[in-house]
Target: Acyl-coenzyme A oxidase
Amino acid sequence: MEGVDHLAHERNKSEFDVDAMKIVWAGSPHAFVVSDRISKLVASDPGFRKDNRSTLSRKELFKNTLRKAAYAWKTIIDLHLSEEEAAKLRFYVDEPAFTDVHWGMFIPAIKGQGTEEQQQKWLPLAYKMQIIGCYAQTELGHGSNVQGLETTATFDPQTDEFIIHSPTLTSSKWWPGGLGKVATHAIAYALLIVGGREQGVHGFIVQLRSLEDHSPLPGMTVGDIGMKFGNGAYNAMDNGVLRFDHVRIPRNQMLMRVSQVTCEGKYKQSDVPRQLVYGAMLYVRQTIVADASCALSRAVCIATRYSAVRRQFGSQNGGPETQVIDYKTQQSRLFPLLASAYAFRFVGEWLKWLYADVTQRLQANDFSTLPEAHACTAGLKSLTTTATADGIEECRKLCGGHGYLCSSGLPELFAVYVPACTYEGENTVLLLQVARFLMKTVSQLGSSKKPVGTIAYMTRVEHLMQCRCGVQRGFAELSADLVEAAVAHCQLLVVSKFIEKLQQEIPGKGVKQQLEVLCNIYALFLLHKHQGDFLSTGCITPKHAALANDELRSLYSQVRPNAIALVDAFNYTDHYLGSILGCYDGNVYPKLYEAAWKDPLNESVVPDGYHQYIRPLLKQEIRTARL
Ligand SMILES: CC/C=C\C/C=C\C/C=C\CCCC(=O)SCCNC(=O)CCNC(=O)[C@H](O)C(C)(C)COP(=O)(O)OP(=O)(O)OC[C@H]1O[C@@H](n2cnc3c(N)ncnc32)[C@H](O)[C@@H]1OP(=O)(O)O
Ligand SMILES: Cc1cc2nc3c(=O)[nH]c(=O)nc-3n(C[C@H](O)[C@H](O)[C@H](O)COP(=O)(O)OP(=O)(O)OC[C@H]3O[C@@H](n4cnc5c(N)ncnc54)[C@H](O)[C@@H]3O)c2cc1C
Model:
């Protein structure tokens, strides 16, 4: 029945203060108040409905996304929302769109790589959305290999301009979000050529479309690259293709914080590391880690609530069947994902601090922590997105057949989420960056200082690399193993940041205790999953492995009465979850049944096509099929 909380009995089992945990999850009392208010504002506004998305054609979906983006912007203006509130509104609208790239990449790139003068010119236009930007780095032929990009930017001292050109088919810009149909400007990455000399890849602000009638400017061939994975909402994003035909831009539209080109045609490399050209990627990667905790927590919320609702087998004397959440197999699949959602939340908080710290240092020209920041953002982006994509799929499977319905919210969540394993740095490529950082760390330790902890094994690897073949060839030969080492290094980071979080003051009855249980689940699940490595290196004995497994089962039993409260702490509205299986009141079956009849296929009892195809079949009126 509507209005009845079918999960009340579960909520009454909770052994901790859920409201206090909501503040821990939000990050602070202020963050909770803002999130709670904005999520309810979005959920209560019909202008932001999303339950009909799966029935729209791609063009309808895209146009609806434009409508929502404009409506969101009007809401932000009319309600005088702050930047923080506006970002929360875009988050809870939950629609992949050009605004993600405008706010998430275009603006950070100008802030990170533009001079003061360039920031003063372009940021006010971008903040007021008087221009709409995209981040055009990837090309048809190159994405991971940034230094392999082929678009050229040739300086013409006669006119004090750069000539942006796509010399080959593979140099076509390909994938940038917002580029296909909406963006008026791009940060375009191109190989700088000054006085006939190549100077590496740099960023350039290029206007793509007229601000009067939105038509592509001369020399621009631009469009959408076509449908993407599944029928998911990511098809609302106009990932585009762009070819430049000798497009001229003023010299002052090269982003010149890192390097400069003078009007005389001199190339100047300031003492800022050239890697700052990659700065926007550092920023986005750290946001992607926080994003992973959100996406995984959504899937876990759905699967946990449904696991408490669903009963299957186990009826005694005609009594109720067993809740599937009580099966140890269900717990051993679900609860490590619940623990991971919290773990990624806290490592994401730490990474946000690390990024802010490195940014502050960079402003003082202190580049000492840039390598560490790169390794951490790259590695944690890789680790958390892989685990989250796998975790969303596992949550779909945990919900049985109903998990495969669009109305469960899980297929769409998966389809929209999985490219995170590829964009902003393909996950293996990023782990190789971490491996390179680890190897460099080890080689710098020198003979007097042996590596310890998770990089202790690197001594053997380093010896092998130096004696058997050159370091470079050794690295390539052992790269698959080094990627595993990089993952282990990042897992250590996640566990250690969870432990550090527990050393903080955490108010609320039973809250810290619950987090300690989740931290232990996360760590022991990893030990169980990788026990082969731990055993073969003598880090643990078979007895330790058995103890860990026993302890895991005990910890699952401790989580069980608190599972619903732990996902309630995410404080997601039913609108944001977009899932009948995960609805707050657990009233699943009537909602599933009601939703089925809303499908367009049920608009007629006899389907289109019956008289044309089925009736002739049934009446044996089909002549022998033409071969
Ligand atoms: C939730 C998201 C929210 C907002 C985002 C908006 C929308 C969401 C949707 C989609 C967004 C996705 C957008 C994109 O995908 S943009 C394109 C992303 N592309 C990439 O990530 C390319 C990946 N490739 C690279 O980063 C580099 O090519 C490389 C793999 C790192 C190799 O670099 P390269 O210069 O060729 O050579 P190396 O010799 O390996 O490195 C030299 C040197 O530099 C150091 N380094 C490398 N990168 C960085 C960095 N980013 N910061 C700092 N330092 C860096 C590297 O460690 C090495 O240092 P050494 O000391 O070892 O020499
Ligand atoms: C949904 C989506 C949105 C995107 N948005 C944008 C955007 O807004 N702007 C933008 O510029 N780009 C965007 N991209 C592009 C994205 O950044 C690239 O796809 C990504 O960087 C991966 O590069 P790639 O496609 O060239 O993959 P590749 O590098 O070709 O990877 C293919 C395979 O080769 C392997 N590989 C590559 N190099 C190595 C190596 N050195 N050693 C070992 N293995 C290797 C990889 O691990 C992978 O298995 C987007 C992509 C997607 C899917």
Notes: Residues 451-457 have pLDDT under 50 and may be disordered.
